[in-house]
């Protein structure tokens, strides 16, 4: 898998840490596993700040689109858990 420095930089920012640009998918997944709650919070903060998010449905769509962009760096289980964690929060808006 070719590295995607932009995606790795975005993930680093979202989790408040640093992911090496040379990291493998398995290494990134291990870091994300430890910081999954931070990643969910970061994605929610992006959704809140986005002009494209104006209701629950657009919030859920925003999160799903962001996860699609970053999908190659996370396991299906991580993606599913992130979708669920963010959905629960967005549904309370």
Please outline what is shown here.
With 93 residues, the protein is mostly helical. It has helices spanning 5-15, 25-34, 36-49, 56-70, 76-91.
List keywords for this structure.
93 residues; 5 helices; globular
How would you describe what is shown here?
With 93 residues, the protein is mainly α. It is built from five helices and no strands. It has helices spanning 5-15, 25-34, 36-49, 56-70, 76-91. The chain is globular, with a radius of gyration of 13 Å. 22% of the residues are buried. The model has no long low-confidence stretch (mean pLDDT 94).
Query: pLDDT below 50 for ≥5 consecutive residues: which ranges?
Result: none
Mean pLDDT: 94
Q: Please, how many helices?
A: 5
Shape: globular
What structural class do helix, strand and pairing data support?
Answer: mainly alpha
Strand content: under 5%
Topology of this structure?
Elements: H1 5-15, H2 25-34, H3 36-49, H4 56-70, H5 76-91
Helix pairs in contact: 1-3, 3-4, 3-5, 4-5
